## 1
Amino acid sequence: MNAVVVGGGIVGLASAYYLAAGGADVAVYEKKSLGSGSTERSVGGIRTQFSTPVHVALSLSSIAVWETFEEVLDTDIAYRRSGYLFCARTEETAAEFAESVAMQRERGVPSELLSPREAREVCPGLKLEEFRAATYCPIDGFADPHLALQGFATEARKAGVEVHTETPVAGLLRDGNRVTGVEIDGVDGVDGGSGTDPKGEDDAGRTRIESDVVVNAAGPWARQVGGMAGLSLPISPRRRQVLVVDPETPVPEDVPLTVDLDTGSYFRPEREGAALVGGHFSSTDPEAEPDQDPDRYTKGTDLDWTAEALERASDYTTYFGPDSGVKRGWAGLYAVTPDHHPVIEESLPGLITAAGFSGHGFQHSPATGQLVAELALDGEASLVDISGLGSDRFNDTERLEHERNVA
Ligand SMILES: Cc1cc2nc3c(=O)[nH]c(=O)nc-3n(C[C@H](O)[C@H](O)[C@H](O)COP(=O)(O)OP(=O)(O)OC[C@H]3O[C@@H](n4cnc5c(N)ncnc54)[C@H](O)[C@@H]3O)c2cc1C
């Protein structure tokens, strides 16, 4: 089988790796450089504490890979398991936490519902008067997205995957309802492997590349790529920002990634006492236009957001305050769906979609790559029950089950 993957982010490269491991001839087409979309802007969080069973299942299957990444994929991804702590300010959120923890524990996740006092034992800088309850899971943590991406890319290449960078896919080939390949503008540079066969140029000077399966792993651009085959996927790019902060009190490295869920603020330890601080606070969340204004999603943070992010973080922890220093910051894109769950499906014969991961596509990439390979090679997915992740769920928005643990 030949497969073409559109997008050289972590989802595309994990998919390419597992497709090649299953025996497919694979080519990845990335319009810029590997990881240049959302992946290299992620803070690398990996957690089991989600509010829906399908997200927990994607996490457990992915963590099985993250745990063995160094042995199997030969790359140290700086995986640190200092836990995640979610904190609730309201009774309503506390009640939802109790439901989520019960669901997680039924699936073998060692999460716990904590009182604010117990929460301060795992995060000593927490101002406990702000909170009603918390949930904590010690097996959660984070890894380095850049290293993980390189790990998948290197092993994919070793397995024969062709990786083409600076090569945008400009169109999808169709035969009736079936997607039969991709079109790229001009001829690209190929960096190794066997892969798929170019089938010559069309009238517009585009190179046509036929393949049995095309994987749409274009992240925040997935709606655009789906649109090339007439799909209208509700996957919307939304700008998110992160700061690297020199706190007033150093944040110990064993402090969990801590989320003030009712405000959306979060922080996690970085090296040598520094911390990453993020969150989305505005009541509006306009769709980003990454192609019209690329600097806005790749470069630094807004001044007013920076001030608010620090203020919010200092509101619930003693680590941050007026004397905290901002070392640097960056912005990136979430690929948001109406229920904060991805679309993983065969959208049309020959076209698999794996996109719309909101703020959790880095951590779910190992399971997603395996599911894409199963869909392509076996015709159905078995690792995780993804029957609820088809795009047809958006036809009945009233029935959507929303992920609640979103920051
Ligand atoms: C600030 C921030 C913090 C985050 N924190 C976390 C976190 O803690 N944990 C977590 O799990 N996730 C996190 N995420 C989300 C995570 O980064 C994404 O979900 C994940 O990287 C998605 O990977 P992807 O491969 O689907 O998309 P991307 O990395 O965006 O890759 C898609 C690629 O497709 C390419 N492309 C687009 N169109 C075309 C085309 N026509 N032809 C060829 N190539 C094309 C793009 O250039 C891009 O490189 C965060 C995101 C941001 C912005």
Note: DSSP finds nine helices and 20 strands in the chain.
## 2
Amino acid sequence: MTKPLSLSQRGQIASRSAMRVDLEVYAEAIENLYHPTKNPEGALILNMAENNLSWPLLREKIETVALENGIPNWVSNYTSALGAASFREALAGFLSKFLCHCPISPDHLACSAGATPVIELTSWILADAGDVAVFPAPSYPVYTQDIGNKAAVERFDLVIQNTTNDRPTLNSKHLDETLTNIESQGKKFRMLILTSPDNPTGYIYSFEQLIEISDWCIEQEVHLIVNEIYGLSLIDTNHPELRADYQTEVDFVSFAQIMQDRQSDYLHLWYSLSKDLGSSGFRLGLVHSLNESFIKAYNNLNAPHMVSNYTQWTFQEVLSDHDFMADYIRKNQAALTESYVLVVKYLRAANVPYVPSRGSLFVWIDLSAFLKDDSVQAETDLWLEIYQKAKLLITPANGFGHQNRGHYRLVYTAISKTGLEEAMSRLSDFIKNKR
Ligand SMILES: Cc1ncc(COP(=O)(O)O)c(C=O)c1O
């Protein structure tokens, strides 16, 4: 074992800071995976935000691309650090047609190996060390590392008291209060980051809400970034089994439409193919911005984060087949809704409260009734107990930045349909025993 003191000070800190708290348990669980006949008592993984529901469709398409096309010469050379021109062209066409429903210029796109480096580099370019990025809570825990590890930007979790089972409505009054709070600490409110559909709640920000928030940010010179990484992973809220869960109808409308209208240097959008296309292993993410200096800075810094040209070329072919993409998105959303319905039926039967999701790969469930007390330790203990007794690995509660103890994220898209039935049946039994 090497001595940590051989590292720089920041290297020493990194050697002690795991990216996620559940990685050790995850490593154990994957050594003992559930199989209906070979390992029926095995572990079921519901903590990683992966979508495997439609991989067979994408795999077939990728295999066809590889079989039917010669690899172009540019693939073996260096390309633009923003992404090859032909790839960005295909991306822009895909985004315009399927996600954004407005024209997107390839000149306003910059690509890196997944959303993770996109978030890291965006933070580095837009904020200085010690500046603050605000996230309405609860929010994706790993944002903390993405904005903090290199850019040294601080995370501020904006907790709004919740009155409904939906997520509270963020408005400019909350932002005014947050600005005063951050400035009173002598710090700068630099970025506001929204995820829509949201991780973990599946909440979607309405168009009107996004306009109000955008105008506040433009006026205050705060960068607003909307992460639409789950933008095509939409649940059919009109499904007969689900309709009664939603008090209002909210259509997903891409933030790109507001960006196009406002033409501001303060509005940006993140996207990645990791979730909607279930292709997290290919590592393809992007930022869309009309801020020319931002794109120039990105170009100058992105070399370490570039996507391999072979991946760019493959996805250029996949994304520009719009008939395939339309079919894929439709089938993927149907599969997503089907799995979601299965999960909520079990939750309702077991009397477990949940936030009705409108999109994403998650259900945000409330197991607070089973906590020993209202502490973080009790949350961790319950999470581990669920793993040890039911062999179900859900996402631990740590790091989401909210204050209601006992809420957990359950990913329902990473395992097979049989696995999901088994998982929900085990969770129901666990709860029955607890009551
Ligand atoms: C909101 C959000 N942003 C970013 C990421 C990371 O995505 P990628 O695999 O493209 O780096 C995730 C993954 O879970 C996510 O949920």
Note: The CA atoms of residues 77 and 284 lie 18 Å apart.
